[in-house]
Amino acid sequence: MRLAGNQTEGAGPQNARFVGLIVSVATLGGFLFGFDSGVINGTVDGLQAAFDSTSIGTGFNVASMLLGCAVGAFVAGRLSDIIGRRAVLIIAAVLFIVSAWGSGIANDATIFVIARVIGGLAVGAASVIAPAYISEVAPAERRGRLSSIQQVMIIVGLTAAFLSNYVLAQFAGGSQAEFWGGYETWRWMFWAELIPAAAFFFLLFFIPESPRYMVAKGRDAEAQTLLSKLLGKSAAKLKLAEIKESMTGDHQPRLGDLISTETSKVRKIVWVGIGLATFQQFVGINIVFYYGAVLWQAVGFSENDALKINVLSGALSIGAVFFAIACIDRIGRKPLLFWGSLLMASALSVMVFAFASGSLIDGELALSDGAGLAALIAANVYVVAFNFSWGPVMWVMLGEMFPNKIRGSGLAVSGFAQWTANFMIIMSFPWLLANVGLPITYGFYAAAAVVSALFVAKMVTETAGRELESMTG
Asked: Fewer Cβ atoms within 10 A, N terminus or C terminus of the chain?
């Protein structure tokens, strides 16, 4: 099974372009995932003023989306086995549109939370289905690179949100200032998402359903036609037979398949998926993305400088993911995860020492110039480490590591675990910042990074270069 450069009969540049079209459209879900997650970063002050929130209330307003993410990931994984991968992404696109409009127009915290939960359903669905869909149409030798584009688009989306927030705040004079139509700027920050969300919805109608879903539903002729376009005619016949063999059973895919019939216990691969999903959040990455502006203001940077730092972090993240794309199919998933964990642990430890060296002035943490610079450099090293390792690789592995029969269910459970852990970390940060301080908070993230390295070394099996039909549970 080869595309341009290593071709089987009938495969060629046209097939590569077709795969490229599919990946380009599917990863718009990643862009919206990133934009919807990052747009909240520059709106925290506006939300707190508009809804008169306490620190815990602000934490819930920010983290409310993650409740929807957990449910969205779980439901989408199972729903994709019933109505298809593309159909779930179309539903997600509609939810992105509804959430963007509702978040901006909300006049009280309840309406805002509802809109953010709706957005969370969309983000949760896109987060698990887009990489799985890409894995199911991509050739094995390029699957890691193509699936990693999802993470590039997540970071591009985050960076676009940061940049959009910064530009809007600059023009208006701050996130709370009135802008077009007499609406506060923070509302326009949410409404900016309507443009990419509408484009995603429209373009999804130009890509096909996953061939593996077609086989699961008995649509072998359609799957054969699509596989021929993806792989070439001769390779398509062999691949169709392999997919059918991997899908054999007396029932359609269901959640109960996650229990081994031999041991009557949850399959080991499911626990690995849950572990990967959970550790990706316990290392604290989304504190930087969701609360970056608040964090840097807490250590002495102005709002304007904090927004600039967010844009810098986003740009570095994109470069790091491109490094992962270049390496993931050559050196494998497991080494990237392991060394990424160790580098994150080191960077987080530097941040802990920098924060611990500060002093409280009028209730605010103040750092020396040297400590502030060390924290800033370490934070960006940490972001780079995450984005050449756990950022893209975790999603790649979740999309490919499960056998065909349990992929939808495995994604449902792992995605639910990932977004639940995300909610716990994000919801707890404002309280931890106010009550125990940054050193202890970041010490926990550093410890989690160390444990994640041990988890990878002991539990994770390499998947690079393997066909999806060879994955076992």
From this structure: C
